Amino acid sequence: MTSMFDSYQMAGLRLPNRIVMAPMSRIRSNPEGLATPSTATYYAQRATAGLIVSEGVQPSKQGQSNPSSPGLHDDAQVEAWKPVTAAVHANGGRIFAQIMHGGRVAHPDTAGAHPVAPSAVALGAEVFTPSGLQPAPEPRALTTAEVPAEARSYADAARRAVAAGFDGVELHGANGYLIQQFLSSNANLRTDRYGGTTANRIRFAVEAVEATADAIGPDRVGIRLSPGGQVWNVVEEDVLTLYTALFEALAPLGLAYVHVLETADEDVLIALRKAWPTTFILNPGGQIAPTPGTKERGEHWLAQGADLISYGRPFLANPDLVERFRTNLPLAEAPKETWYQGGDRGYIDYPSYAHPAR
């Protein structure tokens, strides 16, 4: 029986275990979107994960969703990431950069530009800005001629990620951000080649992935998806049909992996597992669920055919999560107020498990 602690070969990378650190926004970059020395410490502390996927990194100022989030759209940002990737590699780890375009989940006070999206449909929620929560404005609908440039922005960021020392990239196609906005039926009201039919709704995701694979090689590219997930008020119709079509379009590219959140019924996810030819990563925590994913749930999904299991929140307060799982040690919890507050508290001050003195 497959164990979380078995090694795994993924697109030229040997992973020492099957536990992935999932991407999590930490909102601790400087105002220029630069990673900091604390960023390097944070990821290096967690390098025993089989694979680390970084927090969401904006591919352009237009794509920035959160204040104090890092970027990969200028040379200074590339240089700032180099000590981070070097620290992870020095500690024996592997790290992919998650490329995240916020689309309509954004605000002009954060990005310095009006949000763009598939259609001019307001989010109907508040978003984070430098001055606190504010209502998300109605986004500007991209013209048909503009859409390919937004798809290429993922590829541009991927080139910079490789230059910064990342082992690969993951396109953020989940959680209501730009790629999922194109997939959805309520955020995407287009009648051109990017909307309406299933084939048109998946087109933006496919073009973004194709451009990225062409830029850095498909074996360095993954995509994260949340089939049927409703974060940031997205709605998807006929989830299995939609994602089966997407998988069929992406499968010939030979990507490193797909990274799927447990946001649909188990039979849907098992069908998608069977439809995907390369590495399948499953996150058992869903979308910021009331409780984080557990070791037991991860083992269940390994038995169902997942290759790797990703965890988010358990890694916050447990930099040694792999060892804690291996030896059944108790897990520490990270108070929610420290998830995004900035500074080193609740970021790099969690110790590895201290065994009681005998």
TrEMBL record:
GO terms for cellular component: cytosol. GO terms for molecular function: FMN binding; oxidoreductase activity, acting on the CH-CH group of donors, NAD or NADP as acceptor. Its cofactor is FMN. This is Alkene reductase. Keywords: Oxidoreductase. Belongs to the NADH:flavin oxidoreductase/NADH oxidase family. SUPFAM superfamilies: FMN-linked oxidoreductases. Residues 5-331 form the NADH:flavin oxidoreductase/NADH oxidase N-terminal domain. The keyword Oxidoreductase applies. The keyword Oxidoreductase applies.
